[in-house]
Amino acid sequence: TRAECEFYMLFRVEISVPGTPRAKARPRSGMGNFYTPKQTEAEEAYIRELGRKAMAGEKPMLGPVRMVLEAVFEMPASWPPRVREMRTLPHVSKPDLDNIEKLVLDALNGIAFADDGQVCEVRKVKRYGEAARVEVLLEELNTTVDHPAIKRAAKRAAEDRVETRTARRRNANRRRVAPAVKESPIGKRLK
Predict the structure, then answer these.
(1) Where is pLDDT greater, at 81 or 179?
(2) How many angstroms separate the first and last alpha carbons of the chain?
(3) Which of 69, 72, 104, 138 maximizes the CB count within 10 A of its CB?
(4) Which among 21, 24, 1, 58 has a CA at the least distance from the CA of 136?
(5) DSSP string spanning 10-70?
(6) Rounded to an integer, what distance in angstroms lies between the CA atom of residue 63 and that of residue 113?
């Protein structure tokens, strides 16, 4: 819980995602629309559910967030025992580490933190290990430092959130109202 954390950090949560690490797939297009592939949506939903369980009813973090991500891939059975004993071998093939990170950040957006833009420090590793999994550690950092730049940034972020919500509402209202169509004297429609 937030009260039990160390002084320099406000909140800490660990999330373990069992299974082979997957990358976020690029949006696809079809029939003139863009869509997220179903496998990516399923992966995000799975990580989102694990994130909800790990947060245990806590509200999303609002301050700056530090993330440590470790993607562990299972060693191939064909590797000799002497190689399998080396537990810190780097994984240097697909999927890309930044796409694994993107999948995790997008899935935990609004659950572990209010917005993935809050993540200001990232450490990520891709390696071989015993069981395939993704380990995520999130720490909300203490921003009680009395520094003008931090206060300005927090104020700007709050204003941006309000502006974004207002703009979304305004755009939604515009979509609901059909544009007025006038009839011209010649019979052609004018907008």
Answers:
(1) 81
(2) 58
(3) 104
(4) 21
(5) EEEEEEEEESS--PPPPPEEETTEEE--HHHHHHHHHHHHHHHHHHTTPPPB-S-EEEEEE
(6) 8
Among candidates 79, 177, 182, 170, which has minimal Cα distance to 129? Answer: 79
Render pLDDT for 70-85 as a digit per residue (tens, 0 to 9): 999 998 888 888 887 8
| Percent residues over pLDDT 90 in the chain | 37
Other CB atoms within 10 A of residue 93 CB: 7
Q: How far, rounded to the nearest angstrom, does the alpha carbon of residue 168 sit from its chain's CA centroid?
A: 21
81-97 pLDDT, tens digit per residue, is 888 787 778 899 999 99
CA-CA-CA-CA torsion sign (99, 39, 135, 84): negative
Type of residue at 67: M
Token pair in block for residue 34: 């863009």
